[in-house]
Amino acid sequence: MTAHPVPSRRVVLNGAGLAAITLCLGGCAAAPGAASSAASGGPTTVKAADVPVGSGTIVGQFVVTQPKAGTYEAFSYLCTHQNLPVQQVTDAAIVCGRHGSTYSLADGTVLTGPATKALTKATVTVNGDTLTIS
């Protein structure tokens, strides 16, 4: 029988650390459908039809909501608790699943903490069936 070398604890921990970093960086990718200008800090566009009534969507570096039919709001996608991206928009709130903070679809105010500050407001311009967020 051939003996197989046992990796040291340092080798195992280094490998686990690299795997965690890779997983974390993979989760920071832009949302599907994000405009290329979002990465450069320019305006982002989305089709109005892609923003559900009573909910919203994450587009580039923004959360775009439609709290009631024909009314669009936009906010920075960074949770004000630790400045990390929110993960989800439901029919009840904008949700940062990391620590449980939730925000209003209508005005970005905090519904549940630990965040204490509202999401940063962005500007939405409607042009036909296209929304431009900046």
Secondary structure elements and their pairing?
Elements: H1 9-26, E1 44-47, E2 55-59, E3 62-68, E4 71-76, E5 88-89, E6 94-96, E7 101-103, E8 110-112, E9 121-122, E10 124-127, E11 130-133
Antiparallel strand pairs: 1-11, 2-3, 3-4, 4-9, 5-6, 6-7, 7-8, 10-11
How would you describe this protein?
This protein is an alpha+beta fold. It has one domain (about 35-134): Rieske Iron-sulfur Protein (3-layer Sandwich), CATH 2.102.10.10. It has one helix and eleven strands; from the N terminus they run αβββββββββββ. It has one helix spanning about 10-25, and strands at about 45, 55-60, 60-70, 70-75, 90, 95, 100-105, 110, 120, 125, 130-134. A four-stranded antiparallel sheet has the order 2-3-4-9, with no helix packed on it. It is globular. The model is unreliable at about 10-40 (pLDDT under 50).
Could you give a short description of this structure?
13% of the residues lie in helices and 32% in strands.
Q: Structural class of the helices, strands and pairings?
A: alpha+beta
In CATH, the architecture is 3-layer Sandwich
Total helical segments: 1
The whole-number mean of residue pLDDT values reads 79
Tell how many strands the DSSP assignment holds.
Answer: 11
The CATH homologous superfamily is termed Rieske [2Fe-2S] iron-sulphur domain
Terminal residue distance: 66 Å
Most strands sheet: 4 strands, antiparallel
Q: Which stretches are poorly predicted, pLDDT < 50 over at least 5 residues?
A: 11-40
Kindly state the percentage of residues in helix.
Answer: 10-25%
Number of domains: 1
CATH-assigned fold name: Rieske Iron-sulfur Protein
Proportion of strand residues: 25-35%
- What oligomeric arrangement do these chains adopt? single chain
* Shape summary: globular
Instruction: Look at the structure and give the CATH class.
Output: Mainly Beta
Radius of gyration: 19 Å
What is the string of helix and strand elements? Answer: HEEEEEEEEEEE
